[in-house]
Amino acid sequence: QVQLVESGGGLVQSGGSLRLSCAASGTAYIIYSMGWYRQAPGKQRDLVANVTSDHRKVYLESVKGRFTISRDNTKNTVYLQMNSLKPEDTAVYYCHANPGWYDSRDYWGQGTQVTVSS
Fold first, then answer.
1. Considering only CA atoms, which of 10, 14, 1 is closest in space to residue 66?
2. Long-range contacts of residues 72-79, Cβ cutoff 8 Å, at least 24 apart
3. Is the four-CA dihedral 34, 38, 44, 50 of positive or negative sign?
4. pLDDT at 73
5. Residue 11's closest CA among 82, 117, 111, 118?
6. Residue 115: is its pLDDT beyond 90?
7. Does residue 101 register a pLDDT over 90?
8. Strands 10-13 and 112-117
């Protein structure tokens, strides 16, 4: 059973930066896929960025060039550096993990609020 603990959300002005972290525990193996989703009030949860253990990355189109996802496989930790933040980035950000071959379940963090003021 994988547990995900997120940190780094908060309130920032438009144009500012935040860095989210998500540390996974409960497994001795490298987690294959880790990433971030976000959900604004009244909207669906969308993929923001994802990175695999071999560092293949995908991004939501609207965050390309502003957000950077990275990971430390030795710690099963994923990071999301968010620059040039906009009010429309305001949402609850959820860490997601799918371990892969040994455990195909999806795991979610508790969510961290990111609020960007104009």
1. 14
2. 73/30, 75/23, 76/23, 76/24, 76/25, 76/27, 76/30, 76/31, 76/34, 77/21, 77/22, 77/23, 77/24, 78/21, 78/22, 78/24, 78/34, 78/35, 78/36, 78/51, 79/19, 79/20, 79/21, 79/22
3. negative
4. 96
5. 117
6. yes
7. no
8. parallel
The average pLDDT across 5-21 equals 97
Tell me the per-residue pLDDT of 29-75, one tens digit each, with 9 for 90 and over.
999 999 999 999 999 999 999 999 999 999 999 999 999 999 999 99
The answer to whether the CB of 118 falls within 8 A of the CB of 89 is no
Write out the DSSP string of 80-96.
EEE-S--GGG-EEEEEE
- Angstrom CA distances, 82 to 31, 40, 49, 86, 99, stand at 23, 16, 11, 10, 25
Torsion angles phi and psi, residue 62, rounded to 5: -75, -10
Which strand (E) or helix (H) includes residue 19?
strand 18-25
Distance from CA of residue 50 to its chain's centroid?
A: 7
